[in-house]
């Protein structure tokens, strides 16, 4: 099992910045993908940014140029720096950890942290 603890959400005005952190603990394999998803009210959960342990990031088109994902593999921690925030970025943000466990993919989720951007 892998446990994920998120921090850093909050309320910010449009144009502001926030930084999310997610620390993983437990049975972690060296080859994995960590990232951030979000879910706004009435909408499906969507991928925001993910990064494999190799350091290659993937971003949703809606956040490119504004959000930056990074990792500290020694600390099993992933970060999301969010700049130029917009009201449409308002959502619950979830940390995700994906790793291969035998013949299956094991996926874990954090508890979620609320990000609210006021106009």
Keywords:
11 strands; seven-stranded mixed β-sheet; single chain; 119 residues; four-stranded antiparallel β-sheet
Beta-strand content: over 45%
Could you list the spans in which at least 5 consecutive residues all have pLDDT below 50? Answer: none
Radius of gyration (Å): 14 Å
Would you list the SSEs in sequence order as H and E?
EEEEEEEEEEE
Q: Please give the largest β-sheet.
A: 7 strands, mixed
- Secondary structure: number of strands: 11
Helix share of residues?
under 10%
Q: Structural class, please?
A: mainly beta
Can you offer a commentary on this structure?
The mean pLDDT is 95. The chain has 119 residues and is mainly beta. A hairpin with a 6-residue loop joins strand 4 and strand 5. The strands form two sheets. Strands 2, 4, 5, 6, 9, 10 and 11 form a seven-stranded mixed beta sheet that branches. It has a four-stranded antiparallel beta sheet with strand order 1-3-8-7, with no helix packed on it.
Compact summary:
By secondary structure, the protein is an all-beta fold.
Give the helix/strand layout.
Elements: E1 2-7, E2 10-13, E3 18-26, E4 32-39, E5 46-52, E6 57-59, E7 67-72, E8 77-82, E9 91-101, E10 104-109, E11 113-118
Parallel strand pairs: 2-11
Antiparallel strand pairs: 1-3, 3-8, 4-5, 4-9, 5-6, 7-8, 9-10, 9-11
């Amino acid at each position: 099992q892998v446990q994920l603890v998120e921090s850093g959400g909050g309320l910010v005005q449009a144009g502001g910045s926030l930084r999310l952190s997610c620390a993983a603990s437990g049975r972690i394999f060296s080859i994995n993908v960590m990232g951030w998803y979000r879910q706004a009210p009435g909408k499906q959960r969507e991928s925001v940014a993910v990064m494999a342990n190799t350091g290659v990031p993937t971003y949703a088109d809606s956040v490119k140029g504004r959000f930056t994902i990074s990792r500290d593999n020694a600390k099993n921690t992933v970060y999301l720096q969010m700049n130029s925030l917009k009201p449409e970025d308002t959502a619950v943000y979830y940390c995700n950890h994906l790793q291969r466990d035998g013949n299956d993919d094991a996926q874990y989720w954090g508890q979620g942290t609320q990000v609210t951007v006021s106009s």
